[in-house]
Amino acid sequence: MCQGDAAPKQRTEGSLKEAGKLFLKHTTFHGVRHVFLSGSYPRRVAWLLAFLTALALLFTWSSNRVRYLLSSPVYTKAQMVYAKRLVFPAVTICNQNILLPRRMKKPDIFSAGRWLGLFGKNWQVSPAVREALISHIDGTNNEPPWSPFYRILDFNHFLPPPRDSQPSMRQLLDRLGHQLEEMLLYCRFQGQMCGPRNFSTIFTRYGKCYTFNSGQDGRPLLITMKGGMGNGLELMLDIQQDEYLPVWGETDETSFEAGIKVQIHTQDEPPFIDQLGFGVAPGFQTFVSCQEQRLTYLPPPWGDCKATPMDSDFFSTYSITACRIDCETRYLVENCNCRMVHMPGDAPYCTPEQYKECADPALDFLVERDNGYCVCDTPCNLTRYGKELSFVKIPSKASAKYLAKKFNKTEQYIAENILVLDIFFEALNYETIEQKKAYELAGLLGDIGGQMGLFIGASILTILELFDYLYEVMIDNRSRDLLQEVLTCTSAQQTHMSLWKTKAFKNKYSKSFC
């Protein structure tokens, strides 16, 4: 590499110093020129302290804004939106009684006896059951609804069916559960008559239930275009309380209540009526005023909602209910090798014996004790229905005789078994509740830019000025280094040529002199 003297380097340092002074003289950084340009020493020190203080305040405030951004703050926005039409929700109803004793045959009693608490471990009728059944025998020819249970009092000569031919719980509940054709006395939707054909059968932990406006089997969803009573669903139901299972002890299947369980939900969400439903009692007309609420949550790190599609073989749309049923189904199939009647999939349904020995205890443990299992995230988009309930007593004294005559029942039966359920939208609107980001990158840049202008009088263009100056310095240094190298090499070559010519001249004339 060619070597040269230090003169070009001194010229470069001088030119850089001049360029630096020129930059400091014209820069838009407030206060910088007073620190580095000419002036009294105390004045320059004072400006330096002021500039450093402003710079420290800028960094302190900026770091605070960065930490605030990293904390992922959110706020909630609520808004009422008026609509011309709304999809009427799905309405699932279940009788509190799981099955009808009068439909049971002796093989059914044998199959479901231990599940219902009729038998002990040795297939003997428990003393409490025997006492309860005998106490209900009134000595008349009127056969009570639970008369089939009397047959178990003489169960000694009964030949049980083979174990492999015993019915599953699905078959039992489908045949022995309350039938909608018997319960539904009156149905009207938006002034139009409806009936059992407008309901879909679905199984829950309450057994055989029915859903209105489920949207299944290609049925179109019902639309409501008005709010208020008379523009929704009105049902009159007979709960058939006289046919409830007799209570002879505390079991999971014995109901201490009389009435129906109701859940109002979207068509995409399976019912979870045993935990999310509300009760409706006989002897009352229950008014349920609904308002649709559409909730939007944020995914991590701003929130905790689940934004990814549901990884399930049973459900296509994610919801908390679907997630829990999916998880409980997998848990039961893994531990009991069967599934309950409300669970999806292709695993075999549990028999009454499996219900008693495995399924019921396992699911009760999962729901009531193991709070860390089957915990599901909230979906990012959720539709729910807010409800306000009110009641009036039925029948009135004026209508009791008429209803008894109309349905061929006694007045006491009407008072103890008939209920009316009226579900409607309060108004034709819905409420949106959105979780929104309270602070984003644009807000951070705006805050930092404002503080830069406040503390040091800088902006994005000022930063560009600094980068432009540094770029020019780098280019200037590189250009001068190349020029210096070229000049040095050229000077060395000229010197070498002069020396060569001098030597050649001396050699030529020294020979001639000799």
From TrEMBL:
**Where does it live in the cell?**
Cell membrane
Q: How does it sit in the membrane?
A: Multi-pass membrane protein
> Does the keyword section mention Cell membrane?
yes
Which is an annotated GO molecular function term of this record?
Answer: ligand-gated sodium channel activity
The protein's annotated catalytic reaction(s) are: Na(+)(in) = Na(+)(out)
Swiss-Prot/TrEMBL keywords = Cell membrane, Disulfide bond, Glycoprotein, Ion channel, Ion transport, Membrane, Sodium, Sodium channel, Sodium transport, Transmembrane, Transmembrane helix, Transport
Which Pfam families does its entry note? ASC
Membrane-spanning ranges: 45-62
Q: Which GO terms describe its cellular component?
A: plasma membrane
Q: Does the keyword section mention NAD?
A: no
- Where does it mainly reside? membrane
Q: Which InterPro entries match?
A: ENaC (IPR001873), ENaC_chordates (IPR004724), ENaC_CS (IPR020903)
Superkingdom of this protein's organism: Eukaryota
Matching entries from NCBIfam families are given as: ENaC
The name this protein goes by in its record: Uncharacterized protein
Gene name per UniProt: LOC109056912
